[in-house]
Each structure stands twice: as structure tokens, then as C-alpha cells.
Design the sequence.
């Protein structure tokens, strides 16, 4: 499984990232609503219904009552249709804190060609709304019950990025711990349980590595809090795994491979070499869980899981549409928005070819991602209790 996934992801990276080069060992505050006398033009955080573009807990919306503030340099050329992104250097001015890595006009102010209308509170459509994002790239598996991320404290983009990564990697520790507990309750085969245990340990290592990088660049990670929830059904597990594992973690592994090859900061490149190997293994584990769950879900449930996976790909395509801060492209090796779009398309095509249509609703005849030994253990074990 891991070899297959490595081959698929490796073919996506232009020039290829030698697998042998990877096999090394290594261990904000949201601005408060302004007082009335603070000025009518002060930005304020607002609730915003983004519909299909609903943000993760890494994004916040701010109204600009008097339109585009003085000093804003302007918008970037539209990389993707309907994306109205301000220059990344303007995010502090628009969002009120340096930890935001992207800032986009949303709603009526954003025109299809990428231009931004300078709307004010007196406009018929209301004031300019800016979506401020503190998460870029994919780092870790997000568990249900994860507290809202209020932003990483850092004076620069690189520190903010790795502080955010450290937060998400720490959240992944909880995600794999919860998943293993639930797999045990469902009588999952031993190799899946062992893989979940190893993934949890990997995420502890990744948390330490990204925290170190964050602090080296002035960032301070936020503490992770996860609400305890009862065990989920097999379908609920499969739905989350389809989104967080089969789509997001698989793409995260690909991004880590790209960063390991392109980061100009040697410490970052070395860290990403280690993370890339681990995350590729985690992605393979996600597809193994998907295959095991597929064997025990009925046709309607499998269709719902496949639909969730398709939606996750569509949402990820929107998420990566925003351009990346130049420092993250250079020092941290992040691919540009254009490169990310290409990588995601090629990854999806590669997975489709390798797993023979597993990205659409599977049938009983679909390819299983569980090794034969695991399938035999599942069928023969008296501990199998899939509800």
C-alpha cells in the first residue's frame, strides 16, 4: 500500500523526489469589536454565510465599513476564477494581526474576474467583507470536537505557518488515538490497530518538529483542546476518514514531498523529508481503513462515503485557490496556488488509475485496500463486531 501510494505521489512531483532521500530519522488573537468612539471605519469581526465556501476553523471574516483601507496595495491577478485575493502583505492591515496568511474579498465585493468592488457600509450590498485565513497547506488529520483555531502568534508568515502546523499536528495525535479506540471497539484487524498506534506516535514527533520550526521563526503555537465524544458508528468513521484521510492527508503527503524538494531553508527541508515519509504511510493507512469499512457497509452507506470524498476534493480545490505568501513558497517550499491546483488534479487522476475508480461510489467488486492477511484475520476473528 505504502509503495503504491509513494509511486503515485512521486510521479506527480515534477523531477521526482527520490524516496531514498526521504528515509531519514528525526524527531492570534481575534480583534475585539471596536467601541463606538473608536471610529466608524474600524474593522469588525462578523458572521458570514459562505455557503459552499464555508471556512474551516482557521478562517475569520471582517467587515470594512469604509471600504478598502488606505495603504492597501491592491489585489493579486486572479489565479482561479472568482478568487479575489489581496496582496499577502496587506493581510495585517485588513485583518488586524500578522498571523493571517491569506486575505480575500468575499460576497458581493468579489467579481468573477478577480476584481474587488470598494463597497462601504452605505452600499446597497453592504460593506466589504474580507475572509482572513491563518491555515495554508494541509497538516494532519482534524478530529471531531476540535476547538476553534484563533490563530498563531507570530511576527512573520513562516513562523505563523509552522505554529499552525504544530497545532494541526497536535490535533492529529488526538485524531489517531480516537480512531484506534473506535477501531478496537469495532473489532478491526490487528494491522490497522498497529498502524493507528504508529501514526499517533508519528504525529507526536511531527508536533515537536513543527513547534521547533515555529519558535525558530518567532511563532507560538496554540494549545489544542478536543472535546470528548462517544464512539462513532462505522459509517461515521468512514465519512470522516474519506475527508480527512483519503483526500486531505493524501494531498498533505504530496505537499510535504514537494516542500522537501523545494524549501530553501535547510532545516525546513530536512523536517519535511521525515514528515513526507510518515504522511505517505498515514495516507496509505487511510485508504486501508476505507477498504475495510467498504467491506462492511451497505450500498447506500458506501455511496454516501463516496459522495463525501467527492465533496472533499471539491472543497479542497476551493481551499487551495488562494495564492501563498512568497516567503512560504521560497523558504518553506510551499507550491504556488497554480502548482497546488495542478498537483491536486494529477493526484486525483493518479489515484483513480491506481485504485480503479475508488474515487467514485464503490461496489462490492471494487478493489480492497486491505492486504489479504488482514482480510483473513477479519473474517476468522471472533472479535469482529461491526455494527
Sequence:
Amino acid at each position: 500500500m505504502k509503495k503504491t501510494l509513494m509511486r503515485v505521489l512521486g510521479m506527480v512531483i515534477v523531477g521526482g523526489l527520490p524516496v531514498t532521500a526521504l528515509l531519514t530519522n528525526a524527531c492570534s488573537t481575534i480583534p475585539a469589536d471596536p467601541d463606538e468612539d473608536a471610529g466608524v471605519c474600524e474593522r469588525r469581526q462578523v458572521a458570514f454565510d459562505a455557503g459552499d465556501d464555508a471556512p474551516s476553523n482557521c478562517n475569520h471574516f471582517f467587515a470594512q465599513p469604509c471600504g478598502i483601507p488606505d495603504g492597501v496595495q491592491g489585489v493579486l491577478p486572479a489565479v482561479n476564477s472568482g478568487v479575489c485575493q489581496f496582496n499577502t502583505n496587506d493581510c495585517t492591515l485588513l485583518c488586524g494581526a500578522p498571523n493571517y496568511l491569506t486575505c480575500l474579498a468575499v460576497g458581493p465585493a468579489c467579481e468573477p474576474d478577480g476584481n474587488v468592488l470598494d463597497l462601504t457600509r452605505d452600499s446597497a450590498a453592504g460593506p466589504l467583507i474580507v475572509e482572513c485565513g491563518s491555515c495554508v497547506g494541509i497538516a494532519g488529520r482534524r478530529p471531531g470536537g476540535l476547538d476553534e483555531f484563533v490563530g498563531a502568534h507570530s511576527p512573520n508568515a513562516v513562523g505563523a505557518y509552522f505554529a499552525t502546523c504544530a497545532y494541526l499536528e497536535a490535533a492529529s495525535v488526538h485524531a489517531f488515538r480516537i480512531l484506534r479506540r473506535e477501531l478496537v471497539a469495532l473489532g478491526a484487524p490487528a494491522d490497522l490497530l498497529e498502524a493507528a498506534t504508529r501514526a499517533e506516535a508519528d504525529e507526536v514527533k511531527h508536533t515537536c518538529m513543527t513547534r521547533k520550526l515555529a519558535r525558530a521563526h518567532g511563532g507560538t503555537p496554540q494549545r489544542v483542546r478536543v472535546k470528548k465524544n462517544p464512539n462513532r458508528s462505522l459509517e461515521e468513521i468512514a465519512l470522516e476518514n474519506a475527508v480527512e484521510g483519503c483526500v486531505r492527508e493524501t494531498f498533505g503527503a504530496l505537499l510535504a514531498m514537494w516542500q522537501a524538494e523545494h524549501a530553501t531553508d535547510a532545516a525546513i527541508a530536512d523536517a519535511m523529508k521525515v514528515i513526507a515519509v510518515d504522511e505517505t504511510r498515514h495516507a496509505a493507512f487511510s485508504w486501508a481503513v476505507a477498504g475495510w469499512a467498504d467491506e462492511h457497509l451497505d450500498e447506500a452507506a458506501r455511496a454516501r462515503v463516496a459522495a463525501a470524498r467527492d465533496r472533499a476534493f471539491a472543497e479542497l480545490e476551493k481551499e487551495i485557490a488562494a495564492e501563498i505568501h512568497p516567503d512560504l513558497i521560497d523558504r518553506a517550499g510551499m507550491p504556488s496556488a497554480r502548482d497546488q491546483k495542478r498537483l491536486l488534479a494529477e493526484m486525483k487522476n493518479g489515484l483513480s488509475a491506481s485504485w480503479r475508480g475508488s474515487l467514485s461510489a464503490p461496489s462490492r467488486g471494487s478493489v480492497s485496500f486491505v492486504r489479504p492477511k488482514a482480510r483473513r484475520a477479519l473474517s476468522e476473528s471472533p472479535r469482529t463486531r461491526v455494527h
Notes: The first helix runs from residue 2 to 12. Strands lie at 44-46, 59-64, 84-85, 102-106, 128-133. The radius of gyration is 21 Å. DSSP finds eleven helices and five strands in the chain.
